[in-house]
Design brief:
Organism: Natronosalvus rutilus
Largest sheet: 6 strands, parallel
CATH superfamily of the largest domain: inorganic pyrophosphatase (n-terminal core)
Strand order of the largest sheet: 3-2-1-4-5-6
Number of domains: 2
Helix content: 40-55%
Protein name: Bifunctional oligoribonuclease/PAP phosphatase NrnA
CATH architecture of the largest domain: Alpha-Beta Complex
InterPro entries: DDH_dom, DHH_sf, DHHA1_dom, Oligoribo/pAp-PDE_c-di-AMP_PDE
GO molecular function, one term: nucleic acid binding
Oligomer: single chain
Pfam families: DHH (PF01368), DHHA1 (PF02272)
Length: 381
């Protein structure tokens, strides 16, 4: 019997044997590359990095929005899956009714930070922004990790993942969860990992994506749609509705009304000064409201709060890169900063510096509005 088997091997075409060997080698190499890719994916690299630390501080940008809070939740879930304690920090305030509802409905435990000394951990992860800001000593903080989708030059000392083509930072975190393997809590369909995708986390990440992309209608990538689809089966629809439809305060409604009544229009562009306000989160909401006006393709709304002029811009005009327009409009005003994406931008200007304190002569509001109109029109002085 053995001799017959040997004889049968001898009569096999050497070409067939060679192809078989090549196929086995290719299969082995393919498996090795798949395993190598899996281990080197950003989500798994971040997870392995976090195993080296007992605790981590996840820091959001000032006055965090749902995308920032959801991204922080995602990092915390990954950290806790490897027994690393995560504390979520934010500078500023949470004032926007949508943001307050997000925090309350999802029962987030967040710590405020006014100074770098308030951050207990030396291991810092920045989410939804790439340069520490908004608190005393921020410039001295060197983040270990940066995960963001905004333009900027900030980096982490060990891990940086900035994807400006994505509509939300939450989308990046969803990809991390998929890469590390995620368990859908209370579901028979398990991803085989030990990062738990709870209803709260899924709902938060989905709303983070929806809020930063205007419900998947602006600045989206295919990844944003894919992430939303992945999350949908795990969300709590009742909580999602409570976050999306919070009660609106009287002052926000008044500022929206002022923006509509006091707007100044040139061509298809609109600008409005809403004056002194008590709630700066009403400014982007007023900008969103003006974008509903027929014939208006780009808007800038600004108002003053506590010695600072806050700017918010929106654009659905392919000719207007709102972030660049705002950056150019404030470029020669000391201590001013502005920027953002093509469709959405914001900034802050010191009232004193706008009035002429320091090395500049200052600029009046009519002149400033003229600059903004010119910048939106693509004119550069």
């Amino acid at each position: 019997m053995v001799s017959e088997s040997i004889e049968s091997l001898r009569v096999i075409d050497p070409l067939v044997l060679s192809l078989g060997v090549v196929g086995l080698v290719a299969l082995a190499l393919g498996g090795w590359w798949v395993l190598r890719w899996f281990n080197r994916s950003p989500g798994n690299r971040l997870r392995r990095l976090l195993t080296k630390y007992d605790d981590v501080a996840v820091v959001m940008h000032p006055n965090p929005d749902p995308d920032a809070m959801a991204s922080a939740m995602g990092v915390a879930a990954i950290a806790e899956s490897v027994d690393t304690d995560a504390t979520l920090y934010y500078p500023g305030e949470i004032r926007h009714q949508e943001n307050r509802a997000f925090r309350t409905v999802l029962e987030l435990e967040l710590e405020t930070v006014e100074s770098a000394s308030d951050i207990d951990s030396e291991t810092v992860v920045l989410v939804d922004h790439n340069t520490p800001r908004g608190f005393t000593g921020a410039q001295m903080v060197e983040p270990l990790v940066v995960v963001d989708h905004h333009p900027g030059n900030g980096t982490g000392t060990t891990f940086t993942d900035v994807r400006t083509e994505y509509g939300a930072a939450s989308t990046i975190l969803v990809e991390y969860l998929e890469e590390t393997g995620v368990d859908l809590v209370d579901s028979d369909d398990s991803g085989g990992g030990d990062v738990e995708l709870t209803e709260e986390l899924a709902t938060g990440l989905l709303y983070g994506i929806l809020s930063d992309t205007n419900h998947l209608t602006k600045g989206c990538s295919a990844a944003d749609f894919q992430a939303a689809s992945f999350l949908f089966r795990a969300i709590d629809e009742e909580k999602l509705d409570r976050i999306a439809n919070p009660q609106v305060s009287d002052d926000v409604l008044q500022i929206k009304a002022d923006a509509i009544q006091k707007k100044r229009i040139e061509g298809s562009f609109a600008i409005c000064d809403v004056g002194e306000i008590g709630n700066v989160d009403a400014i982007p909401q007023a900008a969103d409201e003006l974008m509903h006006l027929e014939g208006v393709t780009a808007v800038v709304v600004y108002g003053e709060h506590d010695g600072t002029i806050h700017l918010s811009g929106r654009s659905r005009d392919d000719r207007v890169h709102m972030g660049e327009a705002l950056r150019h409009a404030v470029s020669d005003i000391p201590m001013a900063n502005a920027g953002g994406h093509a469709r959405m931008g914001g900034g802050q200007v010191s009232v004193d510096h706008m009035n002429g304190i320091g090395p500049s002569d200052g600029v009046s509001k009519p002149e400033f509005e003229k600059r903004v109109f010119s910048a939106m029109a693509g004119e550069r002085s």
